[in-house]
């Protein structure tokens, strides 16, 4: 059948053989090393100055916000001091127009407004008390809630709560913000609203994920990597200080011999030495706001997978040998009908096909592909798609999803090899925390990663068995709170401990809220040192 062979032609272009995976892994290791030696490389390998991971016994209430790419989350985390915490959050989609706003102020004032909404909703009494104190002039900044800001874009971190935006990714484009301190941008807008909140820490989501995962990982398992597979993709891992050859700006605690490095692996192989490139990858890149960069991310993460499938599908629709989503008459369609696609269908619009449709396609193993066909109808306004149509779509979507998972294994596998942990007799399990809608919801994404890991030289089936990839649910929120806590400890010389305790007592914790849940984590050992920051203060 022509349709089948034409589909196979498309699908085969997304194949990444075991040999390709190995070649890409070696190149990943090479580019990691290059990033540790000098600036201006494709993988930025940004030192985070996080040299170890807090001790879990801390108490306090912290705010955390997470600007990830698709959603903005505001949460408060209560660390109970006995390894458990409570977490409450609100989540809003970031309006598309704000992603390309004229000024940074527009975006950051929206973020500050969401913090205000959250405080009014979840910490009403505290909010009211603070506003009253402020009006009577008795407020003290040491009483302010400390906020950890998870900002998942490349940043040149200059202090625990200071970092300049290097560039936007994931479809954001607000030139005005580039080069500015994103914490200051947020603090300014928070202050305009008179909120009792201090931006205490700036955290990359990958680092937050690694922190939160270390906090809960058990026994001899050591978390070495926090990876994000959401709108975008990136990872932060524990590197030996001796491997970080490029100059670092300040002083920090060298006692652990390690430092967390934010790889910015979304830009792995921008030069395309090893990354697979189809015609559709090229079209996607040319039409993106940042052609030529984030090339790995553009093949791996949620923002892009749907678009690749969309472009490949459009080509098949145009291919006269295939008759995808077109019927000569109703007898050509198993529903005895004619397929119709609305002109308004997302199939005809850039970014019009959400990656969640790929998940539905992958999950549907029914003979009629009924849930996929329903999804095509509701998400893409394709009515009465035939079984063959759905099969073609499923095959293309699966190929794109599988390539993404195998590329993800390249990043994970390279970092496992770099850590040397598989050869360490003291390490049973090499733990990896991951977060993001793609890895959480795409069926068998992790299974496909494991399959590829087994094929990597130096890992193999035995090594892959010792690698544990676990979801760090809400890791970025918990991680940001943990780092905000450390930031607060560092400023405690200046702060009155009683104020901090009063603040915690003032907060009424509403455990009836449906977003609140209690996680009884096992305490890992978490301790962050950023002494260079202390030095900057003095
Ligand atoms: P963020 O990147 O903002 O932190 P998420 O981790 O939720 O947010 O990732 C959002 C991305 O994941 C979007 O690009 C979206 O298309 C994609 N996505 C959402 N749901 C699914 C799903 N069920 N399967 C695959 N991808 C999904
Ligand atoms: Mg995220």
TrEMBL record:
EC annotation from Swiss-Prot or TrEMBL: 2.7.1.-
Domain Hexokinase N-terminal residues, every copy: 7-215
Pfam families (alphabetical): Hexokinase_1, Hexokinase_2
Highest taxon in the source lineage: Eukaryota
Protein name: Phosphotransferase
Keyword GTP-binding set for record: no
Family: Belongs to the hexokinase family.
Membrane-spanning intervals of the chain: 517-534
């Amino acid at each position: 059948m022509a349709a089948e062979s034409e589909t196979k032609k498309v699908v085969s272009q997304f194949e990444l053989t075991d040999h390709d995976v190995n070649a890409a892994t070696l190149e990943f290791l090479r580019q990691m090393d290059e990033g540790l030696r000098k600036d201006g490389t494709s993988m930025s390998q940004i030192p985070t100055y996080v040299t170890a991971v807090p001790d879990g016994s801390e108490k306090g209430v912290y705010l955390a916000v997470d600007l990830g790419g698709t959603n903005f989350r505001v949460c408060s985390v209560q660390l109970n001091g006995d390894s458990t915490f409570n977490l409450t959050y609100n989540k809003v989609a970031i309006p598309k127009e704000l992603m390309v706003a004229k000024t940074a102020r527009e975006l950051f004032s929206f973020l500050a407004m969401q913090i205000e909404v959250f405080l009014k909703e979840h910490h009403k009494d505290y909010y009211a008390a603070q506003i009253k104190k402020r009006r009577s002039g008795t407020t003290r900044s040491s009483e302010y809630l400390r906020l950890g800001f998870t900002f998942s874009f490349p940043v040149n971190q200059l202090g625990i709560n200071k970092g300049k935006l290097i560039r936007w990714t994931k479809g954001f484009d607000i030139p005005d913000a580039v080069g500015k301190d994103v914490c200051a941008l947020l603090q300014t807008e928070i202050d305009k609203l008179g909120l009792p909140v201090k931006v205490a820490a700036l955290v990359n989501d990958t680092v937050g994920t690694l922190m939160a995962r270390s906090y809960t990982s058990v026994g001899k398992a050591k978390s070495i990597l926090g990876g994000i597979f959401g709108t975008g993709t990136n990872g932060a891992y524990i590197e030996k200080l001796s491997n970080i050859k490029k100059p670092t700006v300040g002083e920090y605690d060298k006692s652990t011999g390690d430092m967390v490095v934010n790889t910015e692996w979304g830009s792995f192989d921008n030069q395309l030495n090893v990354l697979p490139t189809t015609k559709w990858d090229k079209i996607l890149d040319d039409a993106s706001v940042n052609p030529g960069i984030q090339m790995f991310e553009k093949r791996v993460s949620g923002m892009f997978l749907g678009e690749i499938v969309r472009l490949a599908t459009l080509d098949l629709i145009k291919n006269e040998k295939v008759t995808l989503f077109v019927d000569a008459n109703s007898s050509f369609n198993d529903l005895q009908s004619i397929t119709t696609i609305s002109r308004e269908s997302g199939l005809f619009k850039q970014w019009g096909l959400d990656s969640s449709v790929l998940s539905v396609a992958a999950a549907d193993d029914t003979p009629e592909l009924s849930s996929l066909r329903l999804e095509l109808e509701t998400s893409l306004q394709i009515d009465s798609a035939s079984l063959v149509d759905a099969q073609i779509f499923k095959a293309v979507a699966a190929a794109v999803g599988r390539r993404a998972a195998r590329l993800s294994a390249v990043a994970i596998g390279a970092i496992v090899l770099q850590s040397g942990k598989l050869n360490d007799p003291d390490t049973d399990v090499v733990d990896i925390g991951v977060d993001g809608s793609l890895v959480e919801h795409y069926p068998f994404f992790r299974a496909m990663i494991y399959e590829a890991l087994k094929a990597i030289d130096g890992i193999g089936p035995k090594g892959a068995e010792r690698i544990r990839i676990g979801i760090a649910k809400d890791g970025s929120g918990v991680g940001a709170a943990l780092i905000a806590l450390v930031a607060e400890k560092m400023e405690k010389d200046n702060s009155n401990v009683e104020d901090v305790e009063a603040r915690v007592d003032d907060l009424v914790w509403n455990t009836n809220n449906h977003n609140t849940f209690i996680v009884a984590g096992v305490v890992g050992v978490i301790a962050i040192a950023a002494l260079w920051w202390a030095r900057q203060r003095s």
